[in-house]
Amino acid sequence: MSIRSSFILLILMVYTGNAYSQKPTYAEMLGYPAGSKVVIFHVDDAGMSYESNQGTKTSIEQGIASSCSIMMPCPWAADMAKHAIEHPEFDAGLHLTLTSEWKAYRWGPVAGKTQVPSLVDKEGNLWSSVEEVVQHATADDVEKEIRAQIDRALTLGLQPTHMDSHMGTLFASDEFLERYIKVGMEYNIPVMFPGGNNKLLIESMNFPVIRQLKAQGKYKEGMDIPKPKILEKAPAVGQMIWKAGLPVLDDLHTISGNWKPEQEVTAEEWGKYKAEQCIRILEEMEPGLAMVIVHSSERSDIFQYISGSGGSRYADMLAMIDPTLKAYIEKEGIILTTWREVMQRRQQVK
User: Fold this and answer.
1) Cβ-count burial of 119 within 10 angstroms (0-12 exposed, 13-18 middle, 19+ buried)?
2) Pairwise CA distance, residues 285 & 328, whole Å
3) pTM value?
4) Rounded distance, CA 124 to CA 222, Å?
5) What kind of fold does domain 3-348 have according to CATH?
6) CA–CA distance, 47 with 173 (Å, rounded to integer)
7) Which H or E element spans position 316?
8) Measured distance CA(98)–CA(194) in Å, rounded
9) Most exposed among 35, 51, 122, 209, judged by the fewest C-beta atoms under 10 Å?
10) What is the tens place of the pLDDT at every residue in 110-164?
11) What angle do CA 161, 178, 173 make, to 5 degrees?
């Protein structure tokens, strides 16, 4: 049976109610103790800028972050890749990039615009938004660009520990998701996919709804908000990835970039606030293997010309090196891991 046929069959199983309810957790299936909370604090957007690279290094080498992924189309990707090569313990994957979202600081596809014409705008850069990629891109061009980004990493000497998706673009279309998983299987590179309980992911995906309800004065803590329908597919897709010999997440948190106190605060206070929010989600997560995404960057006068998110990204870095957060993780016995380790564990499971 082809990958496409298997993918469609498993999705249909979910909708007909025949999908297997995942028990035990993927963490247990990987050999972690039953009931354990296993976490990858993951730094996205490495390679995007010098500041992003410095923030990533600090978060991992001085803090609790244990993994990162590199944006291969971006100008500072080679610097980040070479750092990972020179430090073999550094867990670095690929942040597969199909968008170029900033106004003046932009990049094109690694494959070249003539090779993947449906992925570029009139400037020859990748589309600015996920919606534009879905509207214009063909699945064949998406796959071609994924392969080009992997090949660039391999040419630099980097063996990626995993792959994930910048701005979630590869999760915005079933066809894109299929190609993402297909290429991961072919290269035997883990693909970031949450196929378990997804408690934190439901919170992340419902954030816009909650924000709107709060603005309308209708939100109440603990109120029941419908589970996003897209997650109905997750258990079946997770099973397919697992059966292909790759690890699968039980949960995923994606919205640390939205964490900001309502009042004006210093950079240090913002970082402390984010550390407190990390503790909150660690308390709320169910046992299993979860990935928590941050976007750490060092502070500089230049980053403001790239994006207005510099303050949040610097606060992410400060949160990752916060001693209170580190102490909480140690006290609660939360296990920090890497994509390299979970793949090694997956290879040992029959």
Assistant:
1) buried
2) 14
3) 0.90
4) 46
5) TIM Barrel (3.20.20)
6) 25
7) helix 310-320
8) 20
9) 122
10) 999 999 999 999 999 999 999 999 999 999 999 999 999 999 999 999 999 999 9
11) 110
